[in-house]
Amino acid sequence: MGLNSTPSSERVHIGIFGKRNAGKSSVINAITNQSLAIVSDIKGTTTDPVSKAMELLPLGPVMIIDTPGLDDVGELGKMRIQKSYQVLNKSDIGILVVDGTLGQTDEDKALINKFKEKNIPYIVVMNKLDLVREQQNIDENEINSNPNTIWVSSTTKENIYELKEMIAKQAPTDEPKFKIVGDLLNPSDFVVLVVPIDKAAPKGRLILPQQQTIRDILEAGANAIVVKENELKNTLENLGKKPKLVITDSQVFSKVSTDTPKDFLLTSFSILFARYKGDLKETVKGVKTLEDLKDNDTILISEGCTHHRQCDDIGTVKIPKWITKYTNKKINFEFTSGTEFPYDLSKYKMIIHCGGCTLNEREMKYRVKCAQDQNIPFTNYGILIAYTQGILKRTLEPFSDISCLLEE
Q: What single-letter DSSP state applies at residue 17?
């Protein structure tokens, strides 16, 4: 994805669900006017969720996710159905495609109940209207009489335009409670960003949370100054004006804290992201579990994206090393990345998650809630690193309602 594209985490995620041969792929191709999904008469052509970022007018930038059939069979089929249900956790809008010649089945009704349970706005698309008419099997007054249901034909394109309009109306309209950092700033404020040149970032690029934070600062009418960790001290001395905030990559917290005067506000990208799309309060409370760890406890370290692991990777190398050093215990570590996140968390003493810059808000909040429901403490990289280095209280000063939690 190029620098000018909307990041996938900021797009409206539309999950397309339905039984095998209901016509999910045909409906996707009809609403996007592209051959995005493979269409076949063979049942079960879609075997894994397939995501495609695109512009869908009149809605704008979206992520469309085509899922395997809800009635897949066998052991593999069960796993595919489970993957389809996992897509619910990141769907901002759900679309259930039903074969209109057969009507709604138990699987369809179970999914509608899931939409309601998870408060996901949804549309039931009754497909194959052309065939239903041929069979003279429908009362014309019944078509589109239900506010959540629309009859379409992906073959003749009847009502496809109306379906797109309907999708646009379901889009979330709430402004997010927080911005990444913009709500903490006034126009003309200075913000200093400390950005180590990350080995995991492609050559010539900043990693996603840094790009998004810079954009957010500029939209607030403030000014961003970007420096490497070795240039911070010199930059702050020569700035001539106190910055409103210093934001650092968590990996260099210790050095940045030393080089930043004590009366300057300091935090990190991953702490800002915990507030922006997760639950900062929960992640701060969760980190205290480090004090209670015992030998042979198991910790899950989870990343939202899949990137090539470097030899000094933060998730699989640095964080386990810091935890082992801080606790002086023999801890078992397990790792997940990308869309993989276990439903049953009971074997873990705590979960440590990345900032989640590639996950949308619904998916990130689902993961936090999953842990909450099972009473498993949940924290993230930046909070854990600051805590083990004794500077967490300082890095939470910009958020007065949260810093008091450390005194509880």
A: E
